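Figure 3 (text version): structure tokens given as input.
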């Protein structure tokens, strides 16, 4: 049995190396359409392995690459081939969407991919993340988001609603595009659908993000997607995934419809207290700070989408608020605290606590001398939260 398994892995390695060396990945492209005007806003590139082989399907292709220890190389190849394929279109649309593999998000870009991204492409590249990347490699996600914006490109959060984590991290990721998981379109009357779409629509109105509904197969689905708040749509109703040569796009949009890139948004500089001070957050005494944390605990009690982030450089810094910190941490879906014992490095001489839900935000930042800054502004809290996320180490599966 072991010999057979070893032979299988060896075969995976050999064939996967062949696919990578020969660049035998042939992406297919699927249009993304404005639900009001019918204009083609972009295409999503979907990976396909060598035709008529067991690795033609993307799940099999990436599974084999993972078994072979070549997942990073395969992910880079797929991204490169996606851009190359989009460039063969007679008239590329304004946006090209690429999928990022969460397990290797923290790898450096290949030289070829970086060269293409710097070459003045005739479209903006939208890098898609799923909720799997959010708790696993948050710092790498912010790195990619920052690089995307510095290059004038954009980011998308995919499969929103499929997992509570996607809504929990929505304010921190601040995507330019929010893609609704297709199960929401299939169950438009469900209570959970109304809750998720309400949060997403509210976020889009506040930030200017575009909402895409996936899985649109009929004209009735278009009506449903618009009722859920979607601006754009994707699915067989508008076209099946096809090789570039077989993709006949009509009524291509002349502008991309996205907000401008915002370099610096995903990697603010300074410590949490410095960012809070620069934002003009108000000062509180210790008693008021404790009341603010009690309010945060009350607000997130029973919530399914709360995130708690924090940093403390010594046990004494945490001790002053230990009961309140313990309470909000127990209630949260996701908690990450930088401390002297954690893998991430805490911020010297200060402490910080960030609490976020889709509808509520709070940050407390204090120096060891007792200066406490407080804010409930969602944009300010998100900036402070990103400062902490930048120092979190990847959480690898055990």
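Below: residues designed for each position.
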């Amino acid at each position: 049995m072991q010999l057979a398994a070893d032979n299988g892995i060896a075969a995976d390695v050999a064939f996967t190396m062949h696919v990578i060396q020969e660049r035998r990945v042939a992406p297919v492209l699927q249009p993304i359409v404005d639900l009001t005007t019918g204009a083609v806003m972009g295409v999503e590139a979907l990976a396909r392995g060598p035709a008529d082989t067991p690795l033609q399907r993307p799940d099999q292709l990436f599974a084999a690459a993972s078994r072979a220890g070549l997942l990073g190389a395969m992910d880079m190849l797929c991204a490169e081939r996606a851009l190359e394929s989009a460039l063969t279109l007679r008239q590329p649309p304004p946006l090209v969407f690429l999928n990022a593999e969460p397990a290797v998000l923290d790898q450096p870009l290949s030289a070829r991919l970086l060269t293409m991204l710097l070459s003045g492409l005739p479209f903006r590249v939208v890098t898609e993340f799923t909720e799997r990347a959010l708790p696993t490699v948050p710092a790498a996600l912010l790195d990619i988001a920052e690089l995307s914006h510095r290059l004038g490109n954009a980011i998308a959060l995919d499969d929103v609603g499929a997992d509570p984590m996607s809504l929990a991290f929505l304010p921190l990721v601040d995507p330019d595009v929010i893609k609704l998981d297709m199960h929401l379109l299939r169950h438009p009357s469900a209570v959970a659908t109304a809750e998720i779409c309400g949060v997403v629509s509210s976020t889009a109105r506040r930030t200017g993000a575009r909402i895409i509904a996936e899985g649109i197969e009929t004209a009735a689905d278009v009506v449903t997607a618009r009722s859920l708040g979607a601006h754009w749509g994707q699915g067989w109703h508008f076209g099946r995934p096809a090789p570039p040569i077989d993709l006949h796009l009509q009524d291509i949009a002349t502008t991309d419809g996205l907000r401008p890139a915002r370099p610096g948004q995903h990697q603010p500089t300074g410590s949490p207290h410095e960012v809070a001070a620069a934002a003009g957050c108000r000062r509180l005494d210790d008693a008021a700070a404790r009341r603010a944390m009690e309010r945060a605990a009350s607000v997130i009690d029973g919530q399914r989408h709360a995130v708690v982030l924090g940093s403390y450089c010594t046990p004494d810094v945490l001790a002053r608020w230990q009961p309140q910190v313990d309470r909000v941490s127990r209630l949260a879906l996701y908690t990450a605290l930088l401390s002297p014992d954690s893998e991430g490095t805490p911020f010297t001489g200060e402490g910080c606590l960030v609490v976020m839900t889709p509808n509520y935000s709070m940050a407390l930042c204090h120096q060891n001398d007792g200066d406490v800054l407080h804010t409930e502004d969602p944009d300010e809290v998100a900036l402070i939260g990103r400062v902490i996320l930048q120092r979190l180490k990847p959480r690898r599966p055990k």
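Confidence is low (pLDDT under 50) at residues 1-6.
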